[in-house]
Amino acid sequence: LCTRKFQPQDTVIDLGDGVIFGRGATVMMAGPCAVESEDQVMRTAEFLRSKFDIKVFRAGAFKPRTSPYTFQGLADEGLNLLAKVRKEFGMKIITEVKDTTHLAAVADVADIIQIGTKAMYNFSLLAMCGQLKQPIVLKRGFMTTIKEFLQAADFILSSGNSKVILCERGIRSFEPQTRFCLDVCSAALIKELSHLPIVLDPSHAMGIAAQVPLVAQSAAALGVDGLLIETHPDPANAKSDKEQALSFEEFGRIVPVLDKICTAV
Ligand code: PEP
Ligand code: MN
């Protein structure tokens, strides 16, 4: 269902307020990795909305961490804070779902539901997301072939939800000095293979804040439908993914550059 053979024309996903995936513009989605506190999300949302008119706020309440001894997210309390961000700043919320147990709770507050790189193989979750109305950002598994990635998208589409946005967020390579390897080749190929919008996540791919802006520039130059970028009011004390979170100052420097590139391509 996700192939151009099945549907030649681009899928367009319009969330209102000018947030449109698949019509040539690049939607900026930004925010911290995780919801940590009211102060943290409110400060971040205020910064993004008032300074750059960013309309999509990202942050996880259910975090799929690789160690059980690290911060796992604020769960329902985090969702309540995201609802507050939406209400106060009129931003769209993208937040992730780890498994089917809390899907209904996430769907209650999310404008866009994110399925992370590890949950991409949770086929019951994919099918259940197929029964929802919200757009689903499906992240590519970090060891997933393009074919498997597109098949995962079809699990959602074939269950009834046509609003799937693919996200390339880096795959595992032999190189330990970068967190993952942003597969721009897959993004380029997927534009031809699939009619679904595709967005890139330079933050999780690079994993090092100092280099995230350069990778974001190259992602923007590819002409994708959106970018997911992590930013935090106090990166050094972030409870998850602190190495890759841009400070407000770093974020503020890269946004006009990305805008320029996005307008040019
Ligand atoms: C995230 O977006 O914070 C996240 C956990 O992403 P991924 O599933 O790509 O690792
Ligand atoms: Mn993260």
TrEMBL record:
The alphabetized UniProt keywords are: Transferase
Q: Does the keyword Transferase apply?
A: yes
E.C. designation(s): 2.5.1.54
Which residues does UniProt assign to the signal peptide?
none
Tell me the Gene Ontology biological-process terms attached to this UniProt entry.
aromatic amino acid family biosynthetic process
Outline the extent of the DAHP synthetase I/KDSA domain: 11-256
| One MF term in the entry's GO annotations | 3-deoxy-7-phosphoheptulonate synthase activity
Q: What is this protein called?
A: 3-deoxy-7-phosphoheptulonate synthase
Origin species, per record, is: Halomicronema hongdechloris C2206
Q: Which residues of the full protein are shown?
A: 70 to 334 of 340
